[in-house]
Write a structure and sequence with these properties.
Layout lengths: L1 H8 L5 H8 L6 H14 L40 H8 L1 H15 L8 H14 L3 H12 L5 H10 L8 H15 L6 H9 L4 H23 L8 H14 L5
């Protein structure tokens, strides 16, 4: 108890360091950070980002035992900012480059691959990695931008060989699957088959980079146990926002 009291009140000389370790740079400042850390160590309820305990009249307070929360304390309700959105909100310094990469790979003007096709590659790799949030979100975003919609996305994910896509896109998806297994799985035979189907060097480059990037995004989301909604409508809403505003909007 004495240790917890020292954490809560702190000596003036050490309060700045403690605030940084407890999240004092996030909304609520040093006092909120100390309170969050003490609550976690004492096993009590989590507090909201401004350092107040959850309103008992507004519903059950959140606890680490009874709520689905990430491996780290994001400092807000993950249900309001699920998946990678919550993680980038927690760390805005890395959010900018990550969002810019996704915007460039999936939405920037491209001479031959449309946004729907590039989103389909992202969704396919995310499915192979069994990343629930990324699989669902990019499947919805691909479906919103492909003429055949969700049906085509589901067919590709279920059986690429039988899916009604062109041979060039099929070859690119096979290369994406090889990247997901490991970079050296992309063989000369796969590349030759893709070239025979009409792929360009730019398409090969961007497919490999999209696949590699989404292995990173998938592991980022799952490695920190980011909240994954179960309601498909959440992903459809997110897809509409992305199609209209892009990744740079967050």
């Amino acid at each position: 108890m004495r240790f917890l009291l020292l954490l809560l009140h702190g000596r003036r000389g050490g309060s700045r360091c403690l605030a940084g370790a407890a999240g004092g740079d996030r909304p609520g400042g040093a006092e909120a950070g100390r309170r969050r850390l003490v609550a976690r160590l004492a096993g009590r309820e989590r507090v909201d980002p401004v350092g107040h305990q959850a309103d008992q009249g507004a519903g059950r307070p959140r606890t680490r035992e009874s709520d689905v929360i990430a491996h780290i304390d994001l400092g807000f309700d993950e249900r309001q900012h699920p998946g990678i959105r919550g993680l980038t909100r927690f760390r805005p310094e890395t959010a900018g480059p990550l969002n810019a990469l996704a915007e460039t790979l999936l939405r920037a003007p491209h001479p031959t691959l449309g946004p729907g096709e590039r989103e389909l590659i992202a969704a396919y790799v995310s499915g192979l990695n069994d990343c629930g949030f990324c699989r669902a979100s990019h499947s919805a975003t691909a479906a919103a931008q492909l003429p055949a919609g969700r049906s085509l996305v589901e067919q590709v994910r279920a059986d690429l060989d039988a899916a009604p896509v062109g041979e060039k896109l099929r070859a690119l998806l096979r290369i994406a699957a090889a990247v997901q297994r490991g970079g050296r799985e992309v063989t000369a035979e796969l590349v030759d088959a893709a070239r025979a189907a009409g792929t360009t060097d730019l398409e090969l480059h961007d497919t490999v980079l999209i696949a590699a990037a989404f292995c990173m995004y998938n592991r980022y989301v799952d490695g920190l146990a980011a909240f994954t909604p179960e309601d498909p409508r959440a992903y459809e809403m997110g897809a509409r926002h992305l199609v209209e505003h892009g990744y740079a909007a967050g």
